[in-house]
Amino acid sequence: MPIFISNRITLSDDEVDLSAVKASGPGGQHVNTSATAIHLRFDIRASSLPEVYKERLLALSDHRITDEGIVIIKSREHRSREMNRQGAIERLAILIRSVAEAPKKRRPTRPSKSARAKRVNAKVRRGDIKKMRGKVTH
């Protein structure tokens, strides 16, 4: 079943490597014996994503993306393997959707002439106050 990212972008199942592992942490008798946690591995460079998406994903400073360009998502919130599988896939889709929009270009701005004048006048006034702090002579 393909993974739906947007109207035009889907990922095939063979691009995502899912493996079941034993969940760590406290739990009942069942949790320590069954492999219900899911590790998802997704190679950005080898994927069928558009180049723009790949570049933006690789430029992200996300702890889930390794230096080699592999996304690793661990899902162990639920008790069932299938729910953890769906959760991991959904988190991957959210990560990819986050780079879908181009970041807004920054337009450099300058303070207005009056704002610069107000700043200088405030500094002059503060300096005058400090000048008055000297010793008083009669």
What does this structure look like?
Helices cover 33% and strands 17% of the residues. It is α+β, with helices and mostly antiparallel strands. The chain has a domain at 3-98: Double Stranded RNA Binding Domain (2-Layer Sandwich), CATH 3.30.160. The chain is elongated and about 90 Å long. The N and C termini lie far apart (93 Å).
Question: Which tags fit this structure?
Answer:
138 residues; alpha+beta; Double Stranded RNA Binding Domain; three-stranded antiparallel β-sheet; 3 helices; 5 strands; 17% strand; hydrolase activity; Aminoacyl-tRNA hydrolase; Pep_chain_release_fac_I_sf
Secondary structure category? alpha+beta
Question: Using DSSP, what is the number of strands?
Answer: 5
Let me know the average pLDDT.
84
For this structure, the quaternary state is single chain
Largest sheet: 3 strands, antiparallel
Number of helices: 3
Output the CATH class name of the domain at 3-98. Answer: Alpha Beta
Question: In CATH terms, what is the fold-level topology of the domain at 3-98?
Answer: Double Stranded RNA Binding Domain
N-to-C CA distance: 93 Å
How much helix, percentage-wise, in residues?
Answer: 25-40%
**Order of adjacent strands in the largest pleated sheet:** 3-4-5
H/E series: EEEEHEHH
Into which percentage range does the β-strand content fall? 15-25%
* Rg calc: 28 Å
Query: Per CATH, which architecture of the domain at 3-98?
Result: 2-Layer Sandwich
> Which segments are poorly predicted (pLDDT under 50) over 5 or more consecutive residues?
none
Give the overall shape, derived from the CA principal axes: elongated
GO molecular function: hydrolase activity
Domain Prokaryotic-type class I peptide chain release factors: 9-133
Protein name: Aminoacyl-tRNA hydrolase
Organism: Desulfoluna limicola
